[in-house]
Design brief:
Length: about 325
């Protein structure tokens, strides 16, 4: 990514359009490569007094290595002795907060009852179920899994297809929208996008059943404007599309929070540098935000995918009665 970024900002087109014409600076590369793509007005303004041939012959490179070396020397000579003297006078820098042993034991005692309940009611039964699933006729075997696959493979594939499709739509839409408006979004817009998160899945299923039914609210409105025939309406609710629409709408709020959190972990200076060199919003998302936050986005995707798989009330209320079914 760094190589592509350097190639992008050192291209003659970007140097001419952004550095010379927009900022009014001298180009950072050889001027003879930039002149053919610079407008006549910018060329006269920048190279009227100093021709590019003179600039190429007599121009000097900024001594960055010596500059940073001088900064380091100044720090070593002035700031570090001051810190050492401060410690010697007994006024050391504040140390991180450390919890006393008695307080740690008290916190552990408070956390033990709920932790024991989770282990006893969830973790131990899970281990027991996993152990029994691998035993058939008092022998270790995978025949139970084979039987489940033979009887319910279409239901499993149907469930995975809807979950993956919904996840792709949610992440695709939220990654684009959050990248475009994330840096300038206000608390009010974020609060308005969180509303689906607080609505239970049962309420979402009932609402989508009323909205997407063959003679539901959506088809009634579309029939009033003449887009569909109410006597032969399309049915979205009782199929995979209805389940996908419900899961997508329900998880949009969670996706907003997770994607914005991932994007805000990226240093703003990278985006400012990209904007200074004329990168569009799509280019900033594709080349900066997505590569630098891919680990956080992967965790967000796994979290939303398991949330979709654990939703049984929505498929029960609006899913199809025939096979395959949500499993």
């Amino acid at each position: 990514m760094a190589k592509k970024y350097v190639e992008f900002i050192t291209s003659p087109e970007q140097q001419a359009r952004v550095v010379v014409e927009r900022q009014g600076w001298l180009p950072g590369i050889d001027a003879k490569h930039v002149l053919p793509v610079v407008s006549a007005k910018a060329k006269e303004m920048l190279f009227g007094d100093v021709p590019p041939e003179v600039l190429e012959k007599n121009g000097l490179v900024f001594p960055q290595q010596q500059y940073f070396k001088d900064l380091l020397t100044a720090y070593e000579e002035k700031l570090r002795p001051a810190r050492t003297q401060r410690r010697a006078r007994g006024r050391s820098l504040p140390r991180p907060f450390r919890m006393r042993l008695s307080l740690r034991i008290a916190c552990l005692v408070i956390a033990l009852p709920p932790l024991a309940i989770v282990i006893w009611l969830f973790f131990i039964p899970f281990l027991s179920s996993a152990h029994l699933s691998l035993i058939r006729e008092d022998q270790w075997s995978l025949r139970n899994y084979y039987l489940v696959w033979r009887l319910y493979r279409y239901d499993i594939l149907y469930t995975l297809w809807i979950a993956f499709f919904s996840l792709a739509v949610v992440l695709g839409s939220r990654c684009s929208c959050a990248g475009i408006s994330g840096s300038s979004s206000t608390g009010r817009s974020s609060s308005s996008s969180r509303s689906p998160w607080f609505i239970p899945f049962v309420v979402v299923g009932h609402a989508m059943r009323v909205l997407l039914a063959p003679k539901g609210t959506l088809n009634a409105v579309l029939s009033q404007v003449g887009l569909i025939n109410i006597n032969d309406p399309p049915s979205i609710a009782f199929g995979w599309m209805g389940i996908a629409v419900s899961l997508i709408w329900k998880n949009l709020a969670l996706a907003v929070l997770l994607v914005l959190g991932a994007y805000r972990s990226v240093d703003e200076t990278f985006l400012e540098a990209a904007r200074n060199f004329g990168a569009s919003a799509f280019r900033q998302i594709k080349d900066i935000l997505l590569p630098m936050s891919r680990a956080s986005l992967a965790v967000a995707g796994a979290f939303m995918f398991t949330s979709m798989l654990a939703s049984f009330s929505v498929p029960l209320m609006i899913g199809a009665a025939s096979r395959p079914r949500w499993s």
